[in-house]
Amino acid sequence: MGGNTDTLIERALEGARSIGAETEKVILNTLKIAPCQECENLKDDGSCIVEDDMQDLYRKILEADAVIVASPVFFGSITAQAKIMIDRFQCLWRAKFILKKNTVKKEKVGAFISVEASNREDFFVNARSIVKNFFAVIDASYQEEVLCRGIDEKGKVLARPDCLEKVFELGAKVALLVKQNQAQKGTG
Questions:
Q1: Per-residue pLDDT reduced to its tens digit, 49-67
Q2: Helix (H) or strand (E) holding 84
Q3: pTM over 0.90
Q4: Looking at domain 4-185, which CATH architecture does it have?
Q5: In terms of C-beta distances under 8 Å and separation of at least 24 residues, what long-range contacts does 21-28 make, across chains too?
Q6: Are residues 65 and 106 in contact, defined by beta-carbon separation less than 8 angstroms?
């Protein structure tokens, strides 16, 4: 906590709250989440049989109006913690794409925030792809992203007002998109 990604997600959530959104930040590193075992005795309803902190996280993500994934890039991908969380949605993927049962009850807005140490845009390609696949499973439309290059030391993002402003705007845009979606459906 307190790193560059944490700073950016906090700023994005400030942007969302500035539009009136209720927000919750989930820090994956504080949760006890087992890696996906691709269990053979899966339930056909898209739920996971492994009992750990993912059970509460499934509920939060599936009930959310928006999901912002924030992760630094490590070795060309999202962090292990983020990947484990996403992999645990294999049960939902199976229900949706193999069994053709869409158990997701609510469409969402999705956004991605990421930092990486080099100045290479291509280092974000794999991370973005994983997040887009995750959003497809949870019925989140990939709407916004902020990818900040050249952030290699803890706290360095504080010297990048461009990134800080972009993530604030990302949070505000996500909140506005949710409000627009709710207005169109008459649920706001």
A1: 999 999 999 999 999 999 9
A2: helix 80-87
A3: yes
A4: 3-Layer(aba) Sandwich (3.40)
A5: 21/66, 21/171, 21/174, 21/175, 21/178, 24/60, 26/57, 26/60, 27/1, 28/79, 28/81, 28/82, 28/84, 28/85
A6: yes
